[in-house]
Write a structure and sequence with these properties.
two-stranded antiparallel sheet, Alpha-Beta Plaits, 98 residues, four-stranded antiparallel β-sheet, alpha+beta, 6 strands
Length: 98
């Protein structure tokens, strides 16, 4: 099954300067564990409705597409994120079959 993981920094702390290099290594290892077919950090953008286009004010700062056997396995994989200790939240969404 395919899953979408949306990353939001919802508070907490920034990665301290002396931990940044290790955090990047840990992040790359985590992405490798997920075998993400898409990993995309995002910043800024637009929100579009049928009536307007405005600056994006949401919290999403990244997304990953990855595969897992079940939602439970996908959640367990998300829990291994090195960003959680710095205030990141990950929303794990299952692909809808059509």
């Amino acid at each position: 099954m395919k899953f979408l993981l949306l990353s939001r920094h919802t508070g907490g702390r920034e990665v301290p300067e002396n931990e940044r290099e290790q955090n990047v290594k840990d992040l790359m290892e985590w992405w490798s564990l997920l075998k993400a077919s898409t990993a995309l950090p995002v910043s800024g953008g637009k929100s579009v409705t049928s009536e307007s286009t405005e600056e994006y004010k949401g919290e999403v700062e990244g997304m990953l597409v990855f595969e897992a056997e079940s939602i439970d396995q996908a959640v367990e994989m998300a829990k291994k994120s090195p960003g959680l200790k710095y205030g990141w939240t990950h929303d794990v969404l299952k692909e809808m079959t059509m």
